[in-house]
Write a structure and sequence with these properties.
heterodimer; A: alpha/beta; Rossmann fold; 3 domains; 12 strands; about 20% strand; B: alpha/beta; eight-stranded mixed β-sheet; four-stranded antiparallel β-sheet; about 30% helix
C-alpha cells in the first residue's frame, strides 16, 4: 500500500508562561491509502496536536511548528501557508471532532450547513472563485462581495439537485427521515444523529483523509457502536483513509487496521492491530495493555504502570518512558532511541528491540 | 447473606415545564427512576450499568438521600431511611459517595487534609487529635504521602485527586460506598491503579460497593452482581458472571455486544445489530420502553410493561419474550 500522508520529524511546541511544552517531539508516522490508523495514548500525549497539525488547525499562538514536514500527496502542508491550506481543508482532508454540538453552527439548519459544504466542494472542482457563504463573508471578509457570484445564502429554500444531494448524504449515514432532518437545528438532534451529520458533511466532500478526533467519546456505547460501524463501512464506500484519535484502546482494537501508540509527545510503537495486541514490543504498550480490565477480578490481575507522565516543560534527555520502565538501561537515560522498523510493518522506539538501536549504543 | 440495602418500588420523578406559559396546567414529568426494586448484599459489589439518561445516577443520589424519592422505600442496614424519622447523620456516616469528577467534588481552596478531616468533626464528633489520626490513616490507606495534607487539589494530578476523594469517603468507616463513575475521567493506566485500590479497600474495610458505570469492562472487573437499567427501569439483575456469559434481556445483549473488547480477533463492534437511541424520558414509549429498538418486539410489548421474573435462581429479567433469548 502506498503512503497517503508522510509525517516526518514533526516538532510542535506550545509556548506557555511556565515555559515551552514540546507536544510533538520529532514524530514520524505514515498513513497509508485506504487504511484506518488509530493513534492511541493517554491525555497529554500529543495525539490531538498531531491531528490538528495534519489538518492545519493548530492554534497559533501558542502552538508553533518548529521543524519537520507533513507530506500529503506530494505536497508539504506545513510550507503551504494558510490561504492555500484552505483549499485542502474539507475537500481533501476532512475532520470530525469529539463534541458535535460545538462543531455544528447552532443558529443554522442542518440542511443549510451540509449545503454549504457541498457548494464549496463544487466550486473547488470547477476551479471557480471560492464560494463564500454569507456567514463566512461576515466573519472573514476574504472575497469582495461583488465576486461572490454563486454565493450560497442561508435560510433560502433549498431545492432541486442540491436537496437531493443533501438527502443522499444523510441517507448514506442512515439518518431516518432525512427530508425532515434538513429542516432541523442541531439542538433538535440527539448526540448520535449530530455526529452522523458531521460524518455526512465530512464525507460529502469525498476526502482522501478523514481525521476523527475522539469521534465517539461523547456518545453512549450502543450509539458508539453504530457510529464506528458506519465509519468503517463508509471508508470502503467513499475510499478514504481515516486517522482515528482515541484514548480507548478497546475501540482502536475493534476498528483499526494499524495502531500507533503515543507517549509524552513521541510515537513509541506502530504496528498492524493484530501484531500490536498479540506481541506488543514497547514496555509502555505492554503496560497499557495490562491496565485494561478484560474480565472479572477473580480472573484478571491488573498491573498498573508505576509513576506518572513526565513534565513536558523541562527538556528531557533519553527515553521519556525510562523513569517508569522496568527494563531501563543506562543508554535509555543518555539518548532517545530511534523509531525504527524491527519486524515487517512493526516499528518501535526502544533499545530492547532492533539491531540498529543496539549498534547506535555501541558507537556512543 | 445479609442485605445491606434494599429498595422497593423506588421512583423519582422530576417535574418539567413545557413551553413558555408559566400558567400552563399541563404537568409533565421526567421519570428518571421508575419503580426500581433491588438488593445490595453485604460485602459485595453491585454494578448498575446503562447508558446516559437511564437513571442510574439519580438512583444513586436518591439512595444517598441527596434527593427525596417520589415514592417507594429504601431500607438501609435494617432501617427504612425514607419513611418516618430518619437519623440522617448516621446515614451520611454509613453511606458515602465518590463522584465521577474529583475536579469538582473537591473544593479547590481547601487543603486536602481539611477536605478529609472537616466532615469528620461533625459526623463522628471527634476532636482535633482523633481527626488528624483518621486523616493520616486514610491517606496511608489510599497510598498518598503524608505531606499531601497541606496540598491544594490544584497541585495534584487527576488520579491523586480521586485518591483524596476515596480517602474522604472511607474515613468515617462507612458500610456502603456508592461509586459514581469513579474512573471515567481518568486515563487507562490511572484507572487500573484506582480499580486495584478500590478492591484492596473493600477487602481491608469490609465495604459494600454500589458501582454506577457505563463502562461494561469496569463493571465486569469490579462487581459481583449486576443491575442493568434502561430508561428508568431495572431490566435485568443477577450475578455478573452469569449476565456477562448469558445476558437474557434484549437490551443487555445489545449493551454487552456494543462494548468494545480489547481483542482484535473478536470484532464484536462491527456485528452489532442495534438501531435507534435511548427514548425521551418525558414521553417514553408505552409498554416495554425498549420495544421500538427491540428485535423481538411484538404487540404485547407496546401494551404491557413486563415485570421482573426469575429465569434462574437470583437472575431476574423484565421481558415478555425471555424464552426467545434462552
Amino acid at each position: 500500500m502506498s503512503n497517503l500522508v508522510k509525517v516526518e520529524n514533526l516538532n510542535v511546541c506550545y509556548e506557555s508562561r511556565g515555559g515551552r511544552v514540546t507536544a510533538l517531539d520529532k514524530v514520524s508516522l505514515d498513513i497509508k491509502t485506504n487504511e484506518l490508523l488509530a493513534v492511541v495514548g493517554e491525555s497529554g500525549c500529543g495525539k490531538s496536536t498531531l491531528a490538528l497539525a495534519i489538518i492545519g488547525l493548530l492554534p497559533n499562538p501558542p502552538a508553533r511548528v518548529m521543524s519537520g514536514e507533513i507530506v500529503f500527496k506530494g505536497t508539504d502542508l506545513i510550507r503551504l501557508g494558510q490561504a492555500n491550506m484552505r483549499e485542502y481543508r474539507g475537500t481533501q482532508i476532512a475532520m470530525i471532532f469529539q463534541e458535535p454540538l460545538s462543531s455544528l453552527n447552532p443558529v443554522y439548519k442542518v440542511g443549510d450547513q451540509i449545503a454549504e459544504a457541498i457548494m464549496v466542494k463544487r466550486s473547488r472542482e470547477d476551479g471557480n472563485p471560492p464560494v463564500e457563504s454569507e456567514f463566512m463573508q461576515k466573519t472573514h471578509k476574504i472575497v469582495p462581495p461583488s465576486k461572490v457570484s454563486k454565493s450560497f445564502r442561508y435560510g433560502k429554500r433549498i431545492s432541486g439537485e442540491l436537496k437531493d444531494e443533501i438527502i443522499a448524504s444523510l441517507k448514506l449515514v442512515r439518518i431516518p427521515d432525512p427530508d425532515q432532518v434538513i429542516e432541523r437545528y442541531p439542538f433538535e438532534l440527539s448526540g448520535g444523529m449530530r455526529q452522523r451529520v458531521m460524518i455526512a458533511m465530512a464525507l460529502s466532500q469525498e476526502p482522501a483523509l478523514l481525521v476523527a478526533d475522539e469521534p465517539t467519546t461523547a456518545l453512549d456505547v450502543t450509539t458508539q457502536a453504530q457510529v464506528l460501524k458506519l465509519m468503517k463501512e463508509l471508508m470502503t464506500k467513499v475510499k478514504t483513509s481515516v486517522l482515528l484519535i482515541t484514548h480507548d484502546l478497546a475501540v482502536a482494537c475493534q476498528v483499526a487496521d494499524r495502531v500507533a501508540v503515543m507517549y509524552a509527545g513521541d510515537v513509541v510503537e506502530a504496528a498492524n492491530v493484530f501484531d500490536l495486541f498479540s506481541k506488543p514490543l514497547h514496555p509502555y504498550t505492554q503496560g497499557l495493555l495490562s491496565c485494561l480490565p478484560t474480565g472479572s477480578k477473580s480472573k484478571v490481575d491488573l498491573k498498573p504502570i508505576p509513576g506518572s507522565v513526565p513534565d513536558l516543560r523541562s527538556p528531557l534527555v533519553g527515553c521519556k518512558y525510562a523513569s517508569r520502565c522496568q527494563f531501563v538501561m543506562k543508554q535509555c537515560l543518555d539518548r532517545k532511541p530511534d523509531f525504527i522498523e524491527t519486524m515487517e510493518n512493526h516499528e518501535v522506539a526502544c533499545y530492547l528491540h532492533g539491531e540498529k538501536n543496539g549498534t547506535h549504543s555501541a558507537n556512543n | 447473606m445479609e442485605p445491606i440495602l434494599q429498595t422497593t418500588d423506588l421512583t423519582k420523578y422530576f417535574s418539567v415545564q413545557r413551553g413558555l406559559n408559566p400558567f400552563s396546567k399541563a404537568k409533565k414529568f421526567v421519570r428518571a427512576v421508575d419503580g426500581v426494586s433491588m438488593t445490595i448484599w453485604k460485602g459485595t459489589t453491585i454494578a448498575v450499568v446503562g447508558e446516559s439518561g437511564c437513571g442510574k445516577t439519580t438512583l444513586a443520589r436518591t439512595i444517598a438521600l441527596l434527593t427525596k424519592p417520589t415514592s417507594g422505600d429504601i431500607v438501609f442496614d435494617g432501617r427504612s431511611i425514607v419513611n418516618g424519622k430518619t437519623n440522617s447523620k448516621q446515614v451520611y456516616r454509613d453511606l458515602q459517595m465518590i463522584f465521577q469528577d474529583p475536579e469538582s467534588s473537591l473544593d479547590p481552596n481547601i487543603k486536602v487534609g481539611d477536605s478529609i478531616g472537616e466532615p469528620l468533626e461533625g459526623l463522628m464528633g471527634w476532636n482535633k487529635n482523633e481527626v488528624r489520626n483518621a486523616v493520616e490513616k486514610s491517606l496511608a490507606a489510599v497510598g498518598l504521602p503524608q505531606d499531601s495534607v497541606d496540598r491544594l487539589p490544584g497541585q495534584l494530578s487527576g488520579g491523586q485527586k480521586q485518591r483524596v476523594a476515596i480517602a474522604r469517603a472511607i474515613s468515617p468507616q462507612p458500610k456502603l460506598v456508592i461509586l459514581d463513575e469513579p474512573t471515567s475521567a481518568l486515563d487507562a493506566s490511572v484507572q487500573a491503579q484506582i480499580l486495584r485500590l478500590l478492591l484492596q479497600l473493600q477487602k481491608d474495610y469490609a465495604l459494600s460497593y454500589m458501582l454506577i458505570t457505563h463502562n461494561i469492562a469496569v463493571a465486569e472487573y469490579l462487581s459481583d452482581y449486576m443491575a442493568v437499567m434502561y430508561s428508568g427501569n431495572l431490566v435485568e439483575y443477577g450475578l455478573t458472571e452469569e449476565i456477562m456469559a448469558k445476558p437474557r434481556h434484549p437490551y443487555t445483549i445489545a449493551l454487552i455486544s456494543s462494548a468494545p473488547i480489547a481483542n482484535p480477533w473478536k470484532r464484536n463492534l462491527l456485528q452489532v445489530e442495534i438501531r435507534g437511541e435511548v427514548p425521551s424520558a418525558i414521553n417514553p414509549p408505552s409498554g416495554c420502553k425498549f420495544n421500538p429498538r427491540c428485535p423481538y418486539a411484538d404487540g404485547a410489548c407496546s401494551r404491557e410493561i413486563p415485570k421482573l421474573q426469575e429465569v434462574s435462581p437470583g437472575h431476574l429479567v423484565a421481558c415478555h419474550f425471555v424464552e426467545k433469548t434462552a
